[in-house]
Amino acid sequence: MTSPEPVFLDRDGVINENLKDYVRSLSQWTPLPGVFEAMARLCAAGHPLIVVTNQSGIARGFLDEAELARIHDRMSTMMLHAGGSFAGIEHCPHAPWDGCSCRKPETGMVDRALKRLALPERSGWIVGDAETDMELGRRTGLKTVLVLTGRGRAQLDQIMRDGGPHPDFVREDLGSAAGLILGQESE
């Protein structure tokens, strides 16, 4: 029997509301309905959950690493209360113009998590609301699920119009994506 595959999750727009001017503080961080229950279901089935999030607000001076840690601590605590946990939370603090290897769609965050957690390469899922998440999935061999929360609807329209990296699956939200990953929904 194979072990459950890792599930990589974008944060803003998938787990919490995506704000146009960035989530800059813990007081602005608002989880989307049902996300912790969905993630707890994945955890209960043995899927390691890893958050991979671009946080260029740090490079832009909108928040610092300490405030980001407070947000992620709250998110992790809420996850524990729901009955699950994150195997990891990876973030890229760089601006788009920095040319780093970790800002999605670059693969640095996934690569770090796979190495740290000793997980197999080119196996698993990525759930995101943006074209960059789909491109990251393509580059790392992950099955891609575009959720229509956050920027998802607009990003899907853009992908269809411009021919960007098409998602393997499109789902309404993280709860529906979890159902797909768990085999509770048809592909």
The percent range for strand residues is 5-15%
Give, in spatial order, the strands making up the sheet with the most strands. Answer: 3-2-1-4-5-6
Average pLDDT: 96
Distance between the termini: 22 Å
Shape: globular
Largest sheet: 6 strands, parallel
This entry's quaternary arrangement is single chain
Number of strands: 6
> What is the N-to-C succession of helices and strands?
EHEHEHEHEHEH
Helix content: 25-40%
User: Which stretches are poorly predicted, pLDDT < 50 over at least 5 residues?
Assistant: none
* Helix/strand/pairing category: alpha/beta
The number of helices is: 6
Radius of gyration over C-alpha positions, nearest whole angstrom: 15 Å
Describe the protein.
It is a single chain. The chain is α/β, with parallel strands linked by helices. Helix content is 36%, strand content 14%. It has a 6-stranded parallel beta sheet with strand order 3-2-1-4-5-6, sandwiched between helices. Helix 1 runs parallel beside helix 6 (174-181). The chain is globular and about 45 Å long.
Brief synopsis:
The protein is of the alpha/beta class and 187 residues long.
How is the secondary structure organized here?
Layout: E1 7-9, H1 35-44, E2 49-54, H2 65-82, E3 88-92, H3 108-117, E4 125-128, H4 131-140, E5 143-147, H5 152-162, E6 169-171, H6 174-181
Parallel strand pairs: 1-2, 1-4, 2-3, 4-5, 5-6
Helix pairs in contact: 1-6
